[in-house]
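User: Hey, quick favor. My workstation is busy. Could you predict this chain's structure for me?
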Amino acid sequence: MPITRTSLLVRLRADGDPAGWHEFVVLYEPLLRACARRAGIREHDVPDVVQDVLLKLLRLLPGFEYAPARGRFRAWLGTVCRTAISDWRRRQRHALASMPVAETSMADDTDEREWETEHRRHVLRHALATVQRQVSPGAWTCFERYVLQERSASTVAQELSLTSSAVYVIASRVRARLRQKCAQFDEDLA
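Assistant: No problem, here it is.
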């Protein structure tokens, strides 16, 4: 990821940089969508809720001061997301009153843990996609079959005309790169 979280936030605060907003949306929209779904928002309403969150962020980010000592950006973003979902629900109450909806309180510790869990999933998905583009197709296939599909090293070795030792080495190298990308992405989105 070429642009760090801090520089991206500075760009968004300074002038609402359209390229910066595009990058921000690409990074965070999947996370915001997942949060809305976990909150029990119906699938066809999820884009509206995400749009509400992004509009709220558009208003709040110019005044946002990133201070790592006070907390992580993702915690603040989680609070903004939960607040936007609550606001959306209040506005939609009359429409939702007649429809069964899985109600989930977005204000307790469980929700913060769910936000963190979803954030970790988001980091992993992004890191997997990034690493897949960076390694050779053969190395990715080996890693995918051995690690992600949990097939035995001997089976993967036979399928790919490798030795079991080669499967271990390739998987280890890809796993190390994946850990590095997860750590980098997690830090970028702190």
